[in-house]
Amino acid sequence: MEVTVYILRCRDGSYYTGLTKQSIEARVWEHNAGTFGGYTAQRRPVELVFTEVYDRILDAIARERQIKGWNRTKKEALIAYAYEALPDLSRRGRVKPID
């Protein structure tokens, strides 16, 4: 079974991260139609800006949770496929230890 993790850019410029087992086109259509309400219902239209496909649903769930915990800058680096920037963006928010 394929599971797609995706990021949508909403009308207000915010990002929504989700996952689906159905076709990504169908899922984006549902978001734009307001089929299920929720976060994107008041922020339509939405635009698909990133996808990753997983064979295992547990891997997809873990990745969705990981991305949801990221700040905007890090999500935008992922969307731009700037994978080399991701580690630095993780460290930037950390508090440095006191000597």
Give a description of the structure.
The structure is a single chain. This protein is an alpha+beta fold and 99 residues long. The chain has a domain at 3-69: GIY-YIG endonuclease. It has 4 helices and 3 strands, in the order ββαβααα. Strands 2-1-3 form a 3-stranded antiparallel sheet, sandwiched between helices. A hairpin with a 5-residue loop joins strand 1 and strand 2. It starts with a strand and ends in a 7-residue tail after the last helix. The mean pLDDT is 92.
Write down the oligomeric state.
single chain
- CATH class categorisation of the domain at 3-69: Alpha Beta
Structural class: alpha+beta
Shape: globular
Give the total of beta strands: 3
CATH topology of the domain at 3-69, what is it called?
Answer: GIY-YIG endonuclease
Q: What attributes characterize this protein structure?
A:
99 residues; GIY-YIG endonuclease; 3-stranded antiparallel sheet; globular
Strand-helix topology:
Elements: E1 3-9, E2 15-20, H1 24-33, E3 47-54, H2 57-68, H3 72-79, H4 86-92
Antiparallel strand pairs: 1-2, 1-3
Task: Give a nutshell description of this structure.
With 99 residues, this protein is α+β, with helices and mostly antiparallel strands. The protein has four helices and three strands, in the order E-E-H-E-H-H-H.
